[in-house]
Amino acid sequence: MTPETQTRLETLINHNKIMVFMKGNKLMPQCGFSNNVVQILNTLGVPFETVDVLADEEIRQGIKEYSSWPTIPQVYVDGQFVGGSDILIELYQKGELQEMVEVAMAS
After folding, report:
1. Could you tell me the domains of the chain?
2. Could you read off the pLDDT of 20-46 as tens digits, one per residue?
3. Which contacts (CB < 8 Å, 24+ apart) does range 76-79 have?
4. pTM, whole model, 2 decimals?
């Protein structure tokens, strides 16, 4: 990954309380896993930003290197990598995601 791509990723992650790297965007998810993440975050009623990795190959590959996580979507809360669709579903079902998001929004 280029230093420029790393800087772009860090800026996106650190300047948004909840950042989702996904296929498509929050209004038009382009895969079922990305849609799951959007639905969960919408259910929680929290503001979040998305980056469409399909529109930017550097970001698509760079985010996988950045997180050492091979799949998309990827969710960051308060600058920390949380996981993808399966992990978000699990955290949501346990009530842990709501807690994590509330703490992030309060800081």
Report:
1. 3-106 (3.40.30.10)
2. 999 999 999 999 999 999 999 999 999
3. 76/13, 76/16, 76/18, 76/19, 76/20, 76/21, 77/17, 77/18, 77/101, 77/104, 78/17, 78/103, 78/104, 78/107, 79/13, 79/14
4. 0.94
